[in-house]
């Protein structure tokens, strides 16, 4: 009778060679592949809960502006008024966000984020009521300005990862890449979701849903106290804005923001010039999708060398790939080809932002990380505003095709700033690592 063999993957397989019974160990073939970097990241206790809350709170960031524009323009018949109101909110956010972040660092995320969010939600609801009841125009500006207290949920999430992964540079790189991909996903889905709500139900539906999601997400996020970084104790550290390397880094954020702002306006104008304005949203969504996928891939690989030396390579790739939409518009004039070019061009933005945020964490003084990252976001917002204005001017005075030269110029400026930072050396002594 032949010998009985084992079917267990970890047991040796008995086989007959000639007249000898030998054991052949094929166990390595059955071993499970080790978990990937993202699986290891979210295997840590509490990370899934605070990420779920943060993503819920972050989705409205891509909803508020377009919801306000649709709501105000639909009721008042003026896109100029709608644009002025949203611009006022952006300016108020640029002034208020670093102050809110400073309070978060000093007193803790839960103690500051929840009341700040409540104030922002009340501002959104006040805007909704003022539009609905036909209140004077000045009430719209006042209401939307109140939403500037919205905390930087992405920055708070990155601060939690930095706290949990202190000393593990590879895992922190993966976490930062995931956060950047989440930003791209939220700003890709948010406007589409808001437009769907406003068009399907009633003009105020987008603002109402965004306010509810923001409040619910922040409450869930703040409830995860086990992963919250401790508030700063003792004598306050130096201001992040004055930390060595930070002014140059924030200038790079400003240049990168110009890329984003100009690309959006120019793409809408290019599609409108060809009678297909609705296609612009799809094309811009593809750009965000390319960035999202690139961010996840970038987070799955182990970075080589310090971030200050990787940034010029990322910015250089962005400068080169931003030329693709310009070439597509100039040589073909096809929206389909342009959409493909935007998809490829988007793959360079996430790695650039991930590396930039890693340097922000590195340069920011201990205990003021939320403030440092909020300053970076403020620089991006300022760049987006400048890029929108510059791109609109070029489109109006030259052509939509020429407008694609603005992102190329801005990305080139970001590359030159990154090269200057590389020559300046690594982070200052005592900075975060």
TrEMBL record:
Pfam families: MFS_1 (PF07690). SUPFAM superfamilies: MFS general substrate transporter. InterPro entries: MFS, MFS_trans_sf. Keywords: Membrane, Transmembrane, Transmembrane helix. The chain crosses the membrane at residues 49-73, 79-100, 112-135, 193-223, 249-270, 282-301, 313-331, 337-360, 372-395, 401-420. This is MFS transporter. It comes from Streptomyces tropicalis. The lineage of its organism: Bacteria, Bacillati, Actinomycetota, Actinomycetes, Kitasatosporales.
């Amino acid at each position: 009778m032949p010998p009985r063999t084992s079917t267990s993957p970890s047991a040796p397989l008995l086989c007959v060679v000639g007249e000898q019974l030998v054991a052949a160990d094929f166990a390595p073939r059955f071993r499970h592949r080790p978990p990937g970097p993202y699986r290891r990241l979210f295997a840590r206790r509490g990370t899934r809960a605070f990420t779920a809350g943060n993503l819920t709170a972050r989705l409205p960031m891509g909803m508020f502006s377009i919801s306000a524009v649709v709501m105000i323009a639909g009721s008042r018949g003026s896109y100029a008024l709608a644009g002025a109101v949203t611009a006022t909110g952006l300016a108020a956010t640029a002034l208020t966000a670093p102050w809110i972040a400073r309070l978060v660092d000093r007193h803790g995320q839960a103690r500051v984020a929840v009341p700040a969010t409540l104030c922002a939600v009340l501002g959104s609801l006040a805007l909704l009521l003022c539009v609905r009841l036909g209140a004077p125009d000045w009430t719209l500006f006042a209401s939307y300005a109140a939403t500037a207290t919205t905390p930087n949920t992405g920055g708070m999430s990155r601060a939690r990862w930095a706290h949990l992964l202190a000393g593990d540079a590879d895992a922190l790189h993966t976490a930062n890449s995931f956060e950047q991909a989440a930003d791209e996903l939220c700003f890709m889905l948010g406007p589409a979701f808001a437009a769907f709500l406003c068009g399907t139900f009633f003009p105020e539906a987008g603002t109402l849903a965004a306010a509810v999601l923001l409040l619910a997400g922040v409450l869930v996020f703040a409830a995860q106290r086990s992963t919250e970084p401790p508030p700063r104790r003792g004598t306050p550290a130096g201001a992040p804005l004055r930390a060595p390397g930070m002014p140059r880094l924030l200038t790079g954020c400003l240049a990168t923001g110009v890329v984003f702002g100009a690309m959006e306006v120019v793409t809408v104008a290019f599609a409108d010039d060809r009678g297909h304005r609705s296609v612009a949203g799809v094309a811009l969504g593809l750009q965000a999708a390319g960035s999202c996928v690139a961010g996840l891939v970038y987070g799955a690989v182990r970075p080589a060398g310090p971030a200050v030396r990787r940034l010029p390579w990322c910015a250089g790739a962005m400068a080169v790939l931003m030329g693709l939409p310009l070439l597509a518009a100039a040589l073909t004039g096809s929206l389909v080809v342009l959409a493909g070019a935007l998809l490829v061009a988007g793959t360079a933005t996430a790695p650039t932002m991930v590396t930039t945020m890693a340097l922000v964490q590195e340069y920011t003084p201990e205990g003021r990380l939320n403030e440092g990252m909020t300053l970076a976001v403020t620089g991006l917002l300022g760049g987006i505003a400048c890029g929108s204005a510059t791109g609109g001017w070029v489109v109006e005075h030259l052509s939509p095709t020429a407008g694609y030269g603005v992102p190329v110029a801005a990305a080139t400026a970001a590359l030159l700033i990154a090269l200057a930072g590389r020559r300046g050396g690594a982070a200052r002594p005592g900075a975060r690592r």
